[in-house]
Amino acid sequence: MISILIRRTLSLAVTLLIVSLLIFTVMDLLPGDPAAIMLGTSASPETLAALQKQLGLDQPLPVRYLAWLAGVFRVDLGQSYTYGVPVAGLIGERLIVTLPLALIAIFLSVAIAIPLGVQAARKHNGLFDFVAGLFSYISIAVPAFWVGLLLIILFSTMLGWMPAGGFPGWDAGFLAGLKALLLPAVALALPQAGVLTRVARAAVLEVMNEDFVRTARAKGLSEGVAIWRHAVPNALVPVFTMLGLQFTFLIAGAVLVENVFNLPGLGRLAYQALSQRDIIVMQDVVLFFSALVILMNFLVDLAYLVVDPRLRAGAQ
């Protein structure tokens, strides 16, 4: 088990290194000069050259990449061109919004999808299966930002139950912060719940007629107990796979949803940095998003080994 963990960790480190190189190279290829954008079109060539030297933009690409990578290892992500403050501080301030938003969305997605998928498998080809399938198809087809707009119209404008946007900060109280994140979390969770429902249904259907489930029924266990105690745990591997993939879509969807709800999260920071051509913020935020996705897939791989002993034996 330790050797498996070491191999997975080395693979994680190599993947992060390759991703960081790709991110830096792509960001460098983007059109426009950050120094020229900061100074404006009326800046003299001497002033422009001095600012480029100050920012390190006059150095060759490999030198700038190694300097940036060394800063990442020191958790020194540089200074924002636009805000004039350390990027690490900016990411930390926005992370306390985006991370709870993603976690709440994942929790809601699982809480909706697993019961729906299991019950749809139990009522295969019945009315409940049809309703669950209809929910799945509709939720997958509707974009998260459009769901967010509908939620604002219904629960904020018409009913007045929830705030239409903004984030009061966790200093205003846990309930106030949770209330501000609930609608955007629902907007992110519904499309992912639709996908996860189909995966859970298919996985449970696949194991429902296995010998161990039939044996559990033969021992006198009720249908529900046999399904939840024996079939569902053995159907978790594809569900975990989809959860890892869904985290990627949640991060991507947060960019649009945070702008719809005016949340000061990492998605909104990435959008602002892109519009302001703040390269250092863009590449640091994209690297952070990529690291989160890679780490999530790493944890999913470890979860496979925990829930399925056959995978542990095969890996060893």
From TrEMBL:
It is a multi-pass membrane protein. Belongs to the binding-protein-dependent transport system permease family. One of its GO terms (cellular component) is plasma membrane. The lineage of its organism: Bacteria, Pseudomonadati, Pseudomonadota, Alphaproteobacteria, Hyphomicrobiales. Residues 95-304 form the ABC transmembrane type-1 domain. The chain crosses the membrane at residues 12-30, 95-118, 130-160, 172-191, 235-257, 285-307. Pfam families: BPD_transp_1, BPD_transp_1_N. It comes from the Bacteria. It is found in: Cell membrane. Keywords: Cell membrane, Membrane, Transmembrane, Transmembrane helix, Transport. InterPro entries: BPD_transp_1_N, MetI-like, MetI-like_sf. One of its GO terms (molecular function) is dipeptide transmembrane transporter activity. Its main location: membrane. This is Peptide/opine/nickel uptake family ABC transporter, permease protein. The keyword Cell membrane applies.
